[in-house]
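To start, one record:
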Amino acid sequence: MQTAFLVAALLLMTGFVLRARLAWLQGLYIPASILGGLVGLVLVQLTLQIATPNTEGTTVGEAPPETSGELVWWVQGIHDCAGEWKTWPGWLIAVVFAGLLLDRRARPVQQSLRLAAREGIVVWIVVLGQTTVGLLVTWLIIQQFTDVPNAFGMLIEVGFAGGHGTAAAMGQVFESEAVGLTGGTDLGTFMATVGLVFSVLSGIVYVNIAMRRGWTRAGEVTFHRVTGLEARRHPQPVALGRVHGDVIDPFLFQVLILTIAFGIGWALRATVAEAVNPVLTAMTQRSFEQADTNHDGKLDSAEIGAAVRDDEAARQVLMSDLDRDGAINREEFNDPGIGFALVSQLKTLPLFIYTLLGGLLVRRAAELLRLADLIDGASVQRLTGAAMELLVVAAIASLNLTAVFDVWKELGLLIVAAFLWTGFCLLVVARRLLPSQYWFELGIINYGMSTGTTATGFVLARIVDKNLDSGAAEDYALAAPLSAPFIGGGILTLLLPTLITRTGMAWIAIPLLLVLVALFMLGLALRPRTGNTSI
């Protein structure tokens, strides 16, 4: 951990030096954290090549095999750091969200709900559109010259919006006999990798276009190069907070407040998980009590519904209820169904949703106790900003670029379709449906989420919204529960491959297209009337 942090700090400093010295990087508005992350990415990939010259399939975070002492200590060290960095984004983005509502007054509930609804609709359009576009391209083009399963079209959503975790989970569904997508895990991982790389590169291009065309909250930005050293001529004082230094260090006091907000979020998530487990266990137990284990047409435990397979509590019940041959009847097994899957999704909500709530609770408690003035917004922003800088370096440097290039032509068509769709959603859908004051800031977060990860979206957003004070981050977090349990790796993603295989492309793709149109019209209806620019 210490080594990973030290190397990440060195990468950040390297990025700062590159930005300060290279004029063309200044002209592209690329932050030092992104530059440092790209340097780290190159180092990690080089160490993989040095460490495993004759080994296929080794990825970031996996231990490379040593051969005859040829693996020098620094190669192993960089590789170990990459494995650590892969675990950072989820924690660091939760720290950022813990501070979002901590240092500012919350918006009225009615306004927040309306904004969350508009953002949720846009996310549904973006992600559900990835599935729709993928299915249409597969049905109307790819299947005309090659034989691929219907579920092939879902690789855009699984890889781009879902990411590597969803690709790994859905790979089991893709490769099952019911779906029949050979190499589904590798294909999903490849799409996720392409999406991440494309997300950063194309996102920076969109950010530069937005800054030049005045799409950001600051309006049109005068193009001038910033080295990062300008402030040395007119240094700004560092925020010290509102407590006396003889009692406790003021900055440390702000760290403690942010830590409490994070801790409350962590406790809330753990509480929800504990509350959900007995419910899932009872639902699974009831399903197995209704199954007839008569030894005919038995279903192996590894093949039982994906929702059951992915839940540890359900798996324990399953294993205890199997018959002596380790199987149950295929025809008479009563799948827990959608209700089970929906409840299980409560356990998979990301930590940042809970830490956002933790920050809000701390803020409200401080206001009730008349202690809100002790929370120093400038200090909290510095802390969350530092977390974001480390997040950027870790997310970029630990990208997995070792995915297998199979069925390149078919994947190439899906990738082009995905690029066009995500660009359309940013430049047209987001601009029409999101709040006009910060449509690009929120749109670029959605863009990063739908092509890479939430962390990538915030990396891009911070270029135009450094302190995340536009309101875009809050809208995104509040709307996440409206989409995360269902799409981009949720219950709908889980169910669609089998449904598409059983019903056919037309019965799924065409209704999805109609749903997208209906969602867009609903989004237009939720926009404020002319003259009301508050939301």
